[in-house]
Design brief:
Layout (H helix, E strand, L loop, with lengths): L2 H26 L4 H13 L2 H26 L7 H18 L6 H28 L3 H23 L30 H18 L1 H11 L1 H6 L4 H28 L10 H11 L4 H17 L3 H4 L5 H23 L12
């Protein structure tokens, strides 16, 4: 069995174990697991509106997952995608309501600023990672809280629209990301995410630069002996990962909410990271895993009306998936004689 097939089968087993444990928890609350899972399926794929809703939930998870894949391939664990998403979303909203521009150009400029904001935000932990060797997992996790609170402060105290909720003024119509269907908010962000996934997969598989990034992630000592500037490569990988995270926030603002508000995209960054881990760092595989988590999110809307289960059971299932995948990774590292020579391998 090839390494890729073995890894794929291992991830499938991890998900099945998590679902089985979730079924036990559902039975403990005196509900039928089959009924709950069928309700999830109906809520996610019951009709065209529900399918569009699932794809709408999938879009930010997919783009955040691609951001995580870029970091993982380069040996960097960017856990700050949630914060980069918030900064990117706020930056896009600011361009959307404060900078009148022609239609078409307005969307491009707003998304470009979102990308720059995400990259700029991750540049701080990236600098400390390459300059002082600090662990990017810790620094990027901490940066999430700062990003969420910073955008909340800017929204409430500097850019809050008169009256109403804690949100900025709506963006101008010229900055709207076009919708795909009249009956749903599903927009061109999905197409952007799919194209980005295909491009990143092609980049890592068929370019010299992509190969060198993967080599740094899987065998940093070997890459350094081969003449690759490992520190510079790591810095650029984190910047690219943060830029894609910022893009995810920009798409949410321009295509879904048309403004920035507190908690406008809760948990998408973390779901994207889980999706990337479950796909073993594969951008193509992340399309499938992001769809899985998008279906869980959208399908859970029916749970509290059609069953005795709470929507929070989805959070429990996601946590169980994380535990199962983490256990699998740890067991694999224990049996890998080269595990001590590298940080991550995807």
């Amino acid at each position: 069995m090839s390494d890729k097939l073995r890894a794929f089968s291992g991830q499938i087993v991890a998900v099945l174990i998590a679902l089985a444990m979730g079924a036990v928890i559902i039975m403990l609350i005196d509900e039928s697991p089959i009924k709950v899972f069928m309700t999830l399926m109906r809520g996610a794929f019951g009709d065209q509106a529900k399918i569009a809703g699932t794809l709408l939930q999938t879009t930010p998870i997919l783009i955040c997952g691609i951001a995580a894949c870029i970091g993982l391939r380069g040996g960097m664990f960017n856990v700050g995608i949630e914060g980069q998403l918030f900064l990117g979303g706020f930056a896009a909203a600011w361009v959307g309501f404060a900078m009148p521009l022609p239609a078409g150009l307005h969307v491009v400029v707003a998304m470009a600023v979102a990308v720059i904001a995400g990259a700029a935000w991750v540049s701080i932990p990236a600098f400390f990672r390459v300059r002082y060797g600090t662990n990017e997992v810790v620094s990027t996790i901490l940066s999430n809280y700062v990003a969420v609170l910073l955008t909340s402060y800017l929204t409430i105290f500097l850019f809050k629209r008169p009256g109403g909720w804690s949100e900025t003024p709506p963006i101008l119509a010229t900055a709207y990301l076009p919708e795909l269907f009249a009956f749903s908010r599903l927009n061109w962000g999905l197409i952007i995410g799919l194209v980005l996934a295909l491009f990143v997969a092609w980049f890592f598989r068929h370019t010299a630069k992509g190969y060198s990034i993967s080599m740094v992630g899987s065998a940093p000592k070997f890459a350094e002996y081969g003449g690759i500037d490992v520190k510079r490569q790591g810095f650029l990988v984190l910047l690219a990962s943060g830029a894609v995270g910022g893009l995810a926030g920009g798409i949410e603002t321009l295509g879904v909410h048309h403004r920035f508000m507190e908690g406008f995209a809760p948990g998408f960054g973390f779901d994207g990271l889980i999706a990337a881990l479950l796909a073993n760092g594969s951008p193509i595989g992340t399309i499938v895993t992001a769809l899985f988590f998008g279906a869980l999110r959208n399908g859970s809307l029916l749970l509290e009306t059609d069953t005795n289960a709470s929507r929070e059971i989805i959070t429990v299932i996601q946590a169980l998936i994380i535990l199962s995948v983490s256990a699998q990774v740890l067991m694999k590292r224990r049996g890998d004689s080269t595990a001590g020579e590298r940080r991550w391998k995807f």
